[in-house]
Amino acid sequence: MKKVLGLTAVLLVVSLSGVAGAGTWDTKCTMCHKDGNMMKAPTKAALLEKYKTSDAFIKAAKASKNPMMKSFQADDILKSAAKDLYK
Ligand code: HEC
């Protein structure tokens, strides 16, 4: 029974994210937000620690004045990335 529930949860996450394979966070965000990056972009772990919900995370991303974040502040991109981080 537990196994079936787990599988259902996995399928749900996959179908909600819409695309198979690497998510938005991995394809669009980790090029800067990688562990040990030189750009002072907070890592995934740091962001999860700082922002407890996907809403807070999206708000913070939008609030960033850093020019490097400029192309990544659209609603759909951030929502999709938030889905990867806050499962
Ligand atoms: C070109 C590099 C780059 C890319 C790509 C990028 N970021 Fe950033 N991001 C940064 C930098 C640098 C900062 C730090 C800004 C600061 O501290 O002023 C930042 C800050 C943030 C913050 C705010 C952190 C805070 O505590 O203020 C969030 C949230 C965030 N990014 C999310 C994302 C997401 C989600 C994506 C992908 C959709 C993404 N970023 C893609 C460079 C990038």
Question: What topology emerges from the helices and strands here?
Answer:
Blueprint: H1 2-17, H2 24-29, H3 44-50, H4 54-63, H5 75-85
Helix pairs in contact: 4-5
The protein binds heme C (HEC).
Describe the structure.
By secondary structure, the chain is mainly α. It has one domain (21-85). It has five helices and no strands. Helix 4 crosses helix 5. Mean pLDDT is 87; it is low at 14-19.
- Report, as a whole number of angstroms, the end-to-end distance: 21 Å
Q: What's the average pLDDT?
A: 87
List low-confidence stretches.
Answer: 14-19
Instruction: List how many beta strands DSSP finds.
Output: 0
Strand content: under 5%
Main β-sheet, in a few words? none
The molecules bound to the chains, other than polymers, are: heme C
Number of helices: 5
